[in-house]
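Final report, section 2: Outcomes. Of the targets proposed, GLPGLI family protein is the one most frequently requested by collaborating groups, and we therefore present its record in full.
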Amino acid sequence: MQQEIFSLTIKENRQSYFCSENFSKADSIRGLMNSGLISSQQYMSSPKYRFRSAFMKFISKSYDSGESRVFEKIAAEQFEFRVKNNLKWEIGTETDSISGYACTKATTFLGGRHYVAWFTSEIPITDGPYLFWGLPGLIVKISYTKNHYDFTLVQFVGYTGQIKEWPAFANTRKTIESTAANVFAHREEVRKDPLAVVDRLVGPFTVNGVPSSDKSIRNKRSWDNNPIELRAPLE
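The predicted structure is given below as tokens.
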């Protein structure tokens, strides 16, 4: 089981930006390295510059277009793709108090999973974590029905700092524009056999003297057996 803190930053009730705090910190450090303000030697020698996240995505939503722009790092590559808000919500009559807000229950389906959401009309912002949005109020809590994934609001506060509108790696001009389906397929390829992907990208190599082509050293990443998406979201 893992737990991370995420931020959903809403700008002028027209745009929002979602990522994990550790992703944001790691990305900022990478931006400083790209600018030469932190050297590779400094980065490697000091743990204070290294932040790890299991959620290597940055999501920007446009309320006007109804479209999400997703930036994602997979192994050594960076991708960008767009997803229309095609979620089909069923709003029920059940209510509850969650995180201090009066909420109404709703259900939807995304990436091969059924989710239960609780939204509040007390915050009339049609948004929520990850790719979940489109309800008549902010999503305070949303969970996969088997509770393998759960997003719950910790606090809702005003923000006056600088807003990160895209990840620093998007400034390197090395981002690959793709589709949700292609990125999902690549993500699954890396998840199931990362060494084969490295072998394809950089050529054959050895691990402790064993050729990368030897299937005996293939790392199946058995711990990574429950991705948030079991299929690509509709584009």
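The first strand starts at residue 6 and ends at 11.
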